[in-house]
Amino acid sequence: MNRRQLLRATTALGATGALTGTAVSADASAADATRPLRVHVAMFDGVEELDFAAPYEVFSAAGFFTPRPVEVRYVSATGARTVTAAYGTTVRGIRPWAPDEADLLVVPGGGYARRDSPGVWAEIDRGTLPDALAAAVRLGLTVSALCTGVMLLSAAGLTRGRPCTTHHKARPDLEQQGGILKNARVVDDGDLVTAGGVTSGIELALWLVRRELGPDAANGLETMLEYEARGTVWTSSRID
């Protein structure tokens, strides 16, 4: 089955049907159409600009292609604050951590190659963000990450024994820490969705838009962005 066939097959029933193999009722579909899709993007000092900006733009623009409201916000496990990204970009207006108010949580990466600089390693050493990620897990929340943000999920214990992927340079570490590596650009294991390095954040967001909002929304976004999603999407039939 090629990638396009896979995308059509796994989105035909919507997010719930695709992951559980059960049909989505008309009442449930109607309720989902009026309830906002709430996306939170985790932020920290040293985060890679493209890692957080690409998913933020894709999810924000998704609202143009679906009647369902889409709400996107930047959040921080250390509270409302300003963050300085990897290349010096200052991001203000970041809101407090509130995973109970999210449907999708997106964790970008950054700084993994620089152990003594702000970024993923500093966050792992501090422990605040990994602890917050571990505590965030609940029914109805999809935790996702891209690039070395997946290593923050690993530090939280969320990838152990689960299919996943990350930036190619961090893959040995992820496997050593118990992740089950899949050779795919996006790996969807139900409530855990991971993606490869940097630019794969676009694919991660497009895939989640397709899964949650339908293929028309994702196709419309690809046209608007003048970008065709590439690479393999690995999916499971995991029921969580």
UniProtKB/TrEMBL annotation:
Alphabetic keyword roster: Signal
UniProt keyword S-adenosyl-L-methionine, yes or no: no
Signal sequence annotation: 1-30
Cited Pfam families: DJ-1_PfpI
Residue ranges constituting the DJ-1/PfpI domain according to the UniProt record: 38-209
Family annotation (PANTHER family): ARAC-FAMILY TRANSCRIPTIONAL REGULATOR (PTHR43130), HTH-TYPE TRANSCRIPTIONAL REGULATOR RV1931C (PTHR43130:SF3)
Record's protein name: Transcriptional regulator GlxA family with amidase domain
